[in-house]
Specification:
about 220 residues, mainly alpha, Rossmann fold, 3-stranded parallel sheet, 3 strands, about 5% strand
């Protein structure tokens, strides 16, 4: 039995240690390649978010906590970890798994996505609804550097900064989009990535995390 065979719910990730999580990520990548080679689909975006998705489901507790995937084509790993592993070979097939988050498909899919730049606004709306209901779950928006340049993403960030809601926005800055990213935001992110100070702080933070990993794993 593989490690992936043991993951039928995100809570099952709590049973794995650091080494097992690393091995699980390799198994997920193998499955992604096998299925997308047969069915087609968005391979590269999902290969790039394997560790991110595992980490999100290790930390947060969906479906109570809400994860909103911008565009949604990078949600394959999320589907695999949320009880749809056995159905994954039906991805993008007739009456099979949808290639994007689909609320009717799973309670873990908090928002049905397919168009870019909507995640921050959607997640902010969920955070506002949570607070109005007096609840206290987490809301996370995952957005790429390409979608971040969309007008609705800018409006969402602007509104979120003003409302001060408990909301986490994760930027998946992978320099990948349908077309070349242009504009001030793209140039700003490039400047951050290539800044020596940023690289130094990033390397130091990674070293610290690796040194304490055995005590928190």
């Amino acid at each position: 039995m593989t490690l992936l065979d043991k993951i039928n719910d995100p809570l099952d990730l709590q049973k794995l240690d650091k080494e097992e999580l690393t091995a699980l990520c390799k198994e997920i990548r193998t499955l992604l390649v096998e299925i997308t080679a047969k069915n087609g689909g968005h391979l590269a975006p999902n290969l790039g978010v394997v560790e991110l998705t595992v980490a999100l489901h290790k930390v947060f507790r969906t479906p109570r906590d809400k994860i909103v995937w911008d565009v949604g084509h990078q949600s394959y790993v999320h589907k695999i970890l949320t009880g749809r592993r056995d159905a994954f070979p039906t991805l993008r097939q007739y009456q099979g798994l949808c290639g994007f988050p689909k609320r009717s498909e799973s309670p873990h899919d908090a928002f049905g996505t397919g168009h870019s730049s909507t995640s921050v606004s959607a997640a902010l709306g969920m955070a506002c609804a949570r607070d109005l209901a007096g609840d206290d779950y987490n809301v996370v928006a995952v957005i790429g550097d390409g979608a971040l340049t969309g007008g609705e993403a800018m409006e969402g960030l602007n509104n979120a900064g003003d409302l001060h809601k408990k909301l986490l926005v994760i930027l998946n800055d992978n320099e990948m989009s349908i077309a070349k990213n242009v504009g001030a935001i793209s140039e700003y992110l490039y400047a951050i990535r290539t800044d020596p100070t940023y690289s130094k702080v990033k390397n130091e933070a990674e070293a610290i995390l690796k040194s304490i990993a055995p005590s928190i794993g």
